[in-house]
Amino acid sequence: MLIKLPKSSDCLESDVTPQSLYYSRRSVLGGAMTALAVSGLPRWANADTAARYADVEPGKAPAWFTEKLPTTRWQAVTVKDEAITPFKDATHYNNFYEFGTDKGDPAQNAGTLKTEPWSVVVDGEVGKPGRYALEDFMKPYQLEERIYRLRCVEAWSMVIPWIGFPVSALLKQVEPTSRARFIRFETLLDPQSMPGQRSGFALIDWPYVEGLRLDEAMNPLAILAVGMYGRELPNQNGAPLRLVVPWKYGFKSVKSIVRISLVSEQPKTTWQSIAADEYGFYANVNPEVDHPRWTQARERRLPSGLFSPNVRETQMFNGYSDEVASLYSGLDLRKNY
């Protein structure tokens, strides 16, 4: 069903595009998949996508994504009174250390990543474990567009239109056992295609690992994303499958996922292992708890420049308090950062 979230996630019809334009998808719903001569968009793109995301670079969508896109629930969740970050900024200013430590390295180096074929292992405390080809893994799920704020722990932020499905839908499919308390995510380990994994950046013990409490993963805002800006995920943004948890700092949203495990004990995550005093397990966006080396009370919204800085106050839980604050009732968020 269509998720309606109150207050901070509500949106006016005019926030992104006129309603009459956005919902005129008869040609797509009728199965039309003709090529468009608009900004070089791929063959599966439709007129509404072209109008909304005119600056999107062409991609090469896998067949399963192309087949699912026409039935996507567009604008299932949105943000109010905030502009979407330009596609170029969202795809050329990234942290993805598997491809390098500079912000531009992922876009420059991620072309070596091979996303087809791709498989996902589901294991641990589940009734239906297995290794699934991505096209089979995705079969049960209807895609939704979720326009979310993204807040990096480094105090920069974006607004990104993701395409994906709720993590809760996956959990329903795999049937966690009564022992499952946490969900652990693991990124691809492939030094041949990921130059950062064979570099001298030795602080990280690859593969990259992240995790959530099971009740956090069940929250309707938590999604597994397979696309953004009306197209499949670019490699540098975590293709072909990544986690998006909008009320947490960006490093929680693990990219290029190959393993999802239900576990009884809290998993030791990558950045927590490197510097637990700086990067806690919860990683909730909290303007009242500073990073040891900078304030978290403010953020720089991209695009932003030296002479036109786009600085704003950071919101608790990145503006999603109404939806997630109850998850942490009674928890000291200064100690459990």
Automatic annotation (TrEMBL):
The Swiss-Prot or TrEMBL record lists the needed cofactor(s) as:
Mo-molybdopterin
What does the cofactor field's note say?
Binds 1 Mo-molybdopterin (Mo-MPT) cofactor per subunit.
Keyword vocabulary terms for this entry: Metal-binding, Molybdenum, Oxidoreductase, Periplasm, Signal
Name the InterPro entries for this protein: MsrP (IPR022867), OxRdtase_Mopterin-bd_dom (IPR000572), OxRdtase_Mopterin-bd_sf (IPR036374)
Q: According to its UniProt record, which reaction does this protein catalyse?
A: L-methionyl-[protein] + a quinone + H2O = L-methionyl-(R)-S-oxide-[protein] + a quinol; L-methionyl-[protein] + a quinone + H2O = L-methionyl-(S)-S-oxide-[protein] + a quinol
Under the heading SUPFAM superfamilies, the entry gives: Oxidoreductase molybdopterin-binding domain (SSF56524)
Listed Pfam families: Oxidored_molyb
Per the record, the similarity remark reads:
Belongs to the MsrP family.
Tell me the protein's name: Protein-methionine-sulfoxide reductase catalytic subunit MsrP
Q: What is the lineage of its organism?
A: Bacteria, Pseudomonadati, Pseudomonadota, Gammaproteobacteria, Pseudomonadales
Query: By which gene is this protein encoded?
Result: msrP
